[in-house]
Amino acid sequence: MTNTTPSLDTPGVHTLPGNGDLTRIVLSNTQSVGELYLHGAHMTRWQPRDSEPVLWLSDSAVFTAGKAIRGGVPLCWPWFGPHPADASAKAHGFARLNEWRVGGVEQQREHTRVTLHLTSSPATLDLWPHDFALALEITAGPTLAVALTTHNTGADPFTITEALHTYLTVADIGQVSIEGLHGARYIDQTRSGAVLTQDGPTVTFIEETDRVYQTTAACTVIDPVLGRRIHVAKSGSGSTVVWNPWIEKAARLADFGDDEWPGIVCIEAANAFDAAITIAPGDSHTIRTEISVYPL
Ligand code: BG6
Question: N or C: which end of the chain has fewer CB within 10 A?
Answer without folding.
Answer: C
